[in-house]
Design brief:
Layout: H1 2-60, E1 75-80, H2 87-93, H3 98-108, E2 122-127, E3 139-147, E4 150-158, E5 161-168, E6 172-181, H4 186-193, H5 197-207, E7 222-231, E8 237-250, E9 253-262, E10 266-270, E11 312-315, E12 321-323, E13 328-335, E14 341-346, E15 351-361, E16 370-371, E17 376-380, E18 390-397, E19 400-402, H6 417-436, H7 440-447
Bound molecules: zinc ion (ZN).
Length: 448
């Protein structure tokens, strides 16, 4: 009984508290309403005061026009692509709704494929808020510079319509000539002479059909390169362009290459007689910029071809990209005993190449895959029976390993007739430009 009574009184107390709270709440609302009313009337007052001033100004000048309040400024946000980012992720991050972002990206596809987005790319997104103080609003457009030369601008023209513009900036070009003599390694000599790293990679690729960059480079060999340096109108450096001319002097033998562009074949390099630098197979199927030099070890039993060791080794840092030596089809990509991770490519009925001790395969490289010459297929490692990171490279003729050093591949495309004459004219022009650029090594000699 006692318990029930106490319970009852608690219930009464609760009801009482609620009643007070409701009353208090009502009071609060009324109070808030009152202050709002006061605020409004204050605004009206100042408005009226302005009106009183008006007739005076009308006497001295034209009657002022009441303009609608200015619309809030656009919100401009810059987002930067991190690892794994997509245009979709970045646009949404900047405040675009998913459906609009999707349509905007789709509309851009033909001008710039969204998959070409690179890490570090900055994208500027513009939103238009509907009222002041709002931190977001409808999407207006976005823009970015995929390179120093171009800007892609996507603008919304209607609810689900977008215009895409590609704005090109012309860069100025300048010929730069870099030459040097190799004392310890091509890499060291090229760096010392001021040859850009990207140009060195291009240079090695240019000669990779004819030169074995592990064994053919000897002390006192020379290089001479003319490359385009591109800069903006204000003189700011933009990027290094194409190699226009190159010469390698290996063991006293000069090999010159000239850049030649045609509508049908694009950019190619030819020697002075119009024979293409490109052959069916590469002698150096690797990014050779960092190959370690091994002078006088051309016939080294481990590094070179012997009856016991039926391949050629390229000692290079772990992770160095390995190229498909020629066009073909992957016939094997996997582990293979002492070879470790191994790839074999069939180029035609006669030739095949093999690559061993890889650290790993490039994504998508597997049996049956078609590859093109120079395409990255894997990376240097030390898997299988191997003493250190290197690429073991084999050339197979009718299924049997042959000595790549002895391989005489038929030369590639040969210019003839009218095309050869066109090439000769272009070569003369290039030689003129070359003469106008003193070779830096000569400059160094005279300054001494
Ligand atoms: Zn080997």
């Amino acid at each position: 009984m006692n318990f029930l009574k106490r319970h009852k009184s608690i219930a009464v107390q609760i009801v009482g508290v609620i009643a007070i709270a409701v009353m208090f709440g009502v009071g609060l609302t009324t109070y808030l309403n009152n202050t709002q009313v006061t605020k409004t009337s204050a605004a009206e007052k100042s408005h009226q005061e302005k009106k009183i001033v008006l007739p005076a100004s009308a006497v001295f000048g034209p009657a002022p026009v009441f303009e609608p309040p200015p619309s809030p400024p656009a919100i401009i946000r810059t987002v930067k692509a991190g690892p794994g980012d997509t245009f979709m992720k970045l646009l949404v991050k900047a405040g675009t709704d998913r459906a609009t972002a999707h349509s905007a990206i789709r509309s851009m596809r033909k001008t710039f494929h969204p998959r070409r987005l690179k890490r570090g790319q900055e994208i500027t997104v513009t939103l238009k808020p509907k009222s002041w103080g709002v931190k977001t609003g409808p999407f207006i457009g976005f823009s970015f510079n995929p390179s120093v030369e171009e800007t892609i601008k996507v603008s919304r023209t209607a609810q689900d319509r977008f215009s895409v513009e590609k704005i090109k900036r012309l860069l100025d070009r300048q010929d730069v000539r870099v030459s040097g003599s190799i004392q310890s390694s091509l890499y060291v000599a090229a760096t010392k002479a001021g040859l850009p790293a990207s140009t060195l990679v291009d240079l090695i690729r240019l000669y990779s059909w004819d030169v074995d960059f592990q064994r053919d480079i000897q002390k006192n060999d020379k290089f001479d390169v003319m490359v385009e340096r591109l800069h903006q109108k204000n003189g700011d450096f933009a990027r290094w362009g194409n190699i226009l001319y190159a010469e390698l002097v290996l063991s006293g033998k000069s090999m010159r290459l000239f850049r030649y562009e045609s509508k049908r074949h694009g950019v190619e390099y030819f020697d002075e007689r119009g024979r293409s630098a490109q052959k069916a197979l590469m002698k150096t199927p690797i990014n050779g910029a960092r190959l370690s030099s091994r002078y006088g070890k051309r016939r080294h039993p481990i590094l070179g071809y012997t009856k016991m060791h039926r391949g050629i080794d390229f000692a290079a840092p772990r992770g160095t990209p390995i190229y498909a030596a020629g066009n073909g089809v992957v016939t094997y990509a996997g582990r293979k005993g002492a070879y470790g991770k191994y790839i074999r490519i069939r180029h035609n009925g006669r030739y095949a190449t093999a690559y061993a001790h890889l650290r790993g395969f490039k994504r998508g490289i597997r049996r049956g895959r078609r590859v093109t010459q120079g395409q990255v297929i894997g990376y240097v490692g030390s898997t299988g029976r191997s003493t250190g990171p290197h690429l073991h490279y084999e050339i197979l003729v009718n299924g049997r390993q042959i000595n790549p050093l002895k391989l005489r591949l038929p030369s590639g495309r040969k210019l003839k007739g009218q095309e050869l004459r066109r090439f000769a004219k272009m070569r003369e022009r290039l030689e003129g430009r070359l003469a106008a650029r003193k070779s830096p090594s000569k400059t160094r000699v005279t300054s001494r």
